[in-house]
Recover the amino acids of this structure.
């Protein structure tokens, strides 16, 4: 009897493999379509009848087998519909195969009752393994009652119940877990097949987009070597497809941009996305500006990462940007330039004085401001005309600007009208006096005639100097006021004079 029960259990488990192959594209779940549940219910019903065909004959009308496990497995995985359908088919087979008698009727009734109870239990929200165990116990209980009704011999009944229970519990355990394995394995295969199909479709779409894109699309391995290049490469960088395959990007990037592009490639490789703008050497030897978007892609097949780069030629845009930048720089310079003399204007003077003042505050160093204007310039205009007066201003500005050009730390500006100013950071009053003397001598050397000047027959300057070591409590206007007062002192002393807040020297 034990051998027959084991054979029945083996037949049950082996049948699951066949059913899994037949319906590998139609996995059984409680959420499966109705047609799938009907297919599986039909198969489990047929399986139950096959198990009955190889059943154990207890007496002339009573048989024992594991048909109830077919109902249990159907209900566990598919729910009420396949479980009840399998039960009905098994009930019908019990009568068809063994005729209409009391045992057949009880067996059919028991099969349907198992199907109803297991189908109802399938909707309970507990673990599937626990449901399988409970359904198996329900089946055993109903079968045991039928055996107790049909078997008169107590010894035979005891043996049958023991064998039925042992094999049902052990066989049910293996049958359940084997069917879980069958279902999961085919689900994995189905998922893998779907993933492969999706990958193929993705590759096809990628190639379609790449082949017809006006942007150059390239794929690189982790060493930045080209492993795919779209046809746009010929239009953008004038290379043929095979010329770049296997070569590194670094071989074609401008030396000044290599370090930056390496950082962007590493960023894309490890963080997913990056953008880069750089110069690329074309096949004809010149450089074009390229704008690229980089994105890394993980390939699960070999665990590697690839970087896809979408690039476009932005040389025309870059040249336009450079021209605009140059134009803006020119406009910026013009906004700080005096239109007549070509030197810095009052606006520039104010900004630089604020800047140098702040620097002197932080370094505790002196700052010297030299202010000067042309003596009797109104009379000069009245005598020679405004055009000549403009030329006079230009000549003086150019001469002093040339003199100061040797020291880039000085800022020479036209303060307004015939008045000029020189900002000299880190210069003491003594050094400022020397600069003032040099300016005075430079202008005298020009020997610009001024017949109506009251102090000389050439153009001369009155100069005022002020030096301070600024503090955070003072403003640049304090230095301007001191220099202006010194300039006023030079004028009251007869002009053609250099003065400071504490010093006044007559010009030679």
């Amino acid at each position: 009897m034990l051998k027959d029960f084991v054979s029945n259990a083996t037949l049950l488990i082996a049948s699951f493999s066949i059913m899994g192959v037949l319906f590998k594209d139609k996995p059984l779940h409680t959420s499966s379509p109705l047609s799938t549940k009907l297919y599986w219910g039909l198969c489990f019903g047929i399986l139950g009848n096959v198990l009955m065909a190889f059943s154990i004959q207890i007496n002339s009308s009573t048989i024992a087998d594991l048909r109830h496990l077919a109902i249990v497995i159907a209900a566990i995985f598919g729910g009420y519909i396949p479980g009840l359908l399998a039960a009905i088919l098994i009930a019908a087979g019990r009568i068809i195969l063994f005729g209409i008698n009391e045992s057949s009727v009880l067996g059919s009734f028991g099969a349907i009752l198992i199907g109803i109870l297991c189908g109802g239990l399938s909707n309970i929200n507990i673990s599937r393994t626990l449901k399988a165990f409970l359904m198996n116990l329900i089946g055993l209980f109903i079968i045991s009652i039928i055996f107790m009704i049909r078997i008169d011999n107590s010894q035979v009944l005891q043996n049958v119940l023991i064998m039925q229970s042992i094999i049902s519990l052990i066989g049910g355990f293996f049958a359940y877990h084997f069917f879980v394995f069958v279902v999961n394995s085919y689900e994995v295969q189905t998922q893998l097949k779907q993933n492969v199909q999706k990958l193929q479709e993705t590759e096809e779409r990628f190639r379609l987009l790449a082949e017809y894109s006006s942007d150059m699309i390239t794929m690189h391995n982790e060493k930045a070597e080209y492993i795919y290049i779209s046809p746009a490469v010929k239009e953008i960088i004038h290379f043929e497809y095979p010329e770049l395959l296997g070569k590194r990007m670094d071989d074609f990037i401008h030396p000044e941009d290599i370090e930056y592009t390496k950082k962007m490639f590493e960023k894309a490789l490890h963080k997913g996305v990056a953008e880069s703008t750089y110069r690329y050497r074309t096949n004809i030897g010149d450089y074009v500006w390229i704008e690229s978007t980089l994105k890394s892609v993980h390939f699960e097949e070999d665990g590697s990462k690839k970087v896809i780069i979408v690039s476009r030629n932005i040389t025309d845009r870059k040249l336009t940007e450079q021209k605009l930048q140059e134009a803006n720089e020119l406009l910026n310079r013009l906004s700080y330039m005096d239109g007549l003399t070509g030197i810095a204007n009052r606006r520039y003077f104010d900004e630089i004085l604020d800047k140098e003042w702040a620097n002197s505050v932080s370094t505790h160093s002196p700052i010297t401001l030299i202010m000067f204007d042309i003596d009797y310039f109104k009379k000069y205009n009245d005598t020679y005309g405004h055009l000549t007066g403009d030329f006079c201003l230009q000549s003086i500005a150019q001469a002093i600007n040339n003199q100061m050009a040797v020291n880039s730390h000085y800022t020479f500006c036209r303060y307004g009208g015939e008045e000029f100013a020189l900002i000299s950071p880190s210069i003491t009053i003594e050094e400022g006096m020397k600069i003032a003397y040099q300016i005075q001598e430079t202008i005298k050397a020009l020997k610009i005639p001024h017949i109506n000047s009251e102090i000389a027959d050439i153009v001369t300057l009155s100069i005022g100097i002020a030096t301070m070591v600024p503090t955070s409590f003072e403003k640049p206007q304090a230095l301007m006021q001191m220099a202006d007062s010194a300039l006023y002192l030079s004028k009251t002393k007869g002009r053609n004079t250099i003065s400071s807040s504490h010093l006044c020297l007559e010009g030679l």
In short: The domain at 214-318 is CATH 3.30.450.20 (Beta-Lactamase). The chain has three domains: 2-190, 214-318, 336-506. The CA atoms of residues 292 and 311 lie 4 Å apart. Confidence is low (pLDDT under 50) at residues 502-508.
